[in-house]
Description:
The protein has 2 domains: 3-268 and 474-494, Aldehyde Dehydrogenase, Chain A, domain 1 (3-Layer(aba) Sandwich), CATH 3.40.605; 273-468, Aldehyde Dehydrogenase, Chain A, domain 2. Helix content is 38%, strand content 21%. It has 16 helices and 21 strands. The strands form 5 sheets. Strands 15-16-17-14-13-18-19 form a 7-stranded mixed sheet, with helices on both faces. Helix 2 (71-87) packs across helix 6 (199-211) and helix 3 (89-100) crosses helix 4. It comes from Streptomyces tsukubensis (strain DSM 42081 / NBRC 108919 / NRRL 18488 / 9993). This is Aldehyde dehydrogenase. Belongs to the aldehyde dehydrogenase family.
Amino acid sequence: MTGTRGPEGPPVAGRLFIGGEWVEPDGGQYAITDPANGETVGSAPEASRAQVYEAVSAARDAFGPWSRTRPEERARILDTAAGIIQRDAAESAELARRESGATTGTARAMQVGVAAARFRRYARGALEPVEQPLPPQLTPAGPMGGGGLLGALAVRRPVGVVTCITSYNNPWANPAGKIAPALAMGNTVVVKPAPQDPLSVFRLAAALAEAGVPPGVVNVVTGSSPEAGEAAVEAPGVDMVSFTGSTAVGRRIAEVCGRGMKRQLMELGGKGAALVFDDADLGAAVAGIGTTFSFYSGQICTAPTRVLAQRGVYERITGMLAAYAAKLPVGDPADPATVVGPLISAAHRDRVESYVELGRKEGARLVTGGERPTGGALDRGCYTAPTLLADCTSGMRVVREEIFGPVVVVLPFDTEEEGIALASDSDYGLIDYVWSGDPARAFRVAGLLRSGGVGVNTVARHMEAPFGGFRMSGVGRDVGSYALHAYSEIQSLVWPGR
């Protein structure tokens, strides 16, 4: 392994981070482009399969010492890393904006800011108790010996080496949400970022190294093709895979993990239903649903993309959503006035546009959007207008499949039972939403929805509440203390009483 020592400070451009060293990639580099204008942001390294295996080996060697590190020391390092991230927040947010297309405000607050907050949270998490005492149990005498009183503890232990495969829509908060709890529990990690925007993750690794993370505890490998990710999943030294991304890729990862009996944490696709009842505060509902048009340009799995509107408010909310979408400024994410920035790539923009055209062919009514914004810098970027499709039916592909862009579909329903049935008619089950002026009905309906979370009259997230999905939306839960549980194994300790 040819490496350049010097992990403190900024990452060495175009190099992998393996075993505490910046390593020249076997496959050269590939360009990272700004989706707002097509300009080159920087170069990312192309790791070979052998280099990914080296990263796993480095993590395996570091696991024993790191897992035995005192929780207070792990907490100190994570807290120090949070301070370094905050110190360099302006420069990091600029990089995140350029490689992901997020607006400046989003890059600062929801990407870099959330990443720092997650390292602070899991610095505290490293100090949470890992033992749960169990009630004593009286056992009668039998063939195995005399009876007596048994004591027991359930103790959470680190899993081992964790491969973290992260999503492109948030190159700071998503990796931080995996790395921080994994390290807090005493695991070591190999991080494989999304190929579109990996440069932020190298900055994150450099912050951790500066904070004092020992060599091999955190490793970062990248590649523009699936090869690096596949190697990071199948490597024999990997004990667990934590993945955020599409359901299709998640299925393939699950197959490999199944063969090796590897632990999985999967946060996959979503097609969130937003049930809006006749008695709802329509202004609040529109403001919440409208985040699909603007937040990450709809590239977010928790978005309320399926609006199920009760017949009495169907036309009103359709009109209000159209007006909301039409007034959102689309443009350069560096411009403070911009609300809707570009999609991550031209290929993804084409995919989103193809879904809009498919919806029209399926019989949906295009209420607003559907066109590609043009003029000036918009011609060089990967932009698409916020789009609303109405008069949809549950069998349409635009209703059933995750589009992952600023596209909302609207379906009418009459009775509460029909609304619940429509919401449940989905392969996904990540987060659904209910808007109603009747709290009893809202919570009753929420309890009948088959999804990992339900927002009642809000799209806000509670950052200690468990996060994950039913059905094709994933396996397992994280966030808050639930993430510490996700990155740990349970060991039982049993002993005779006196």
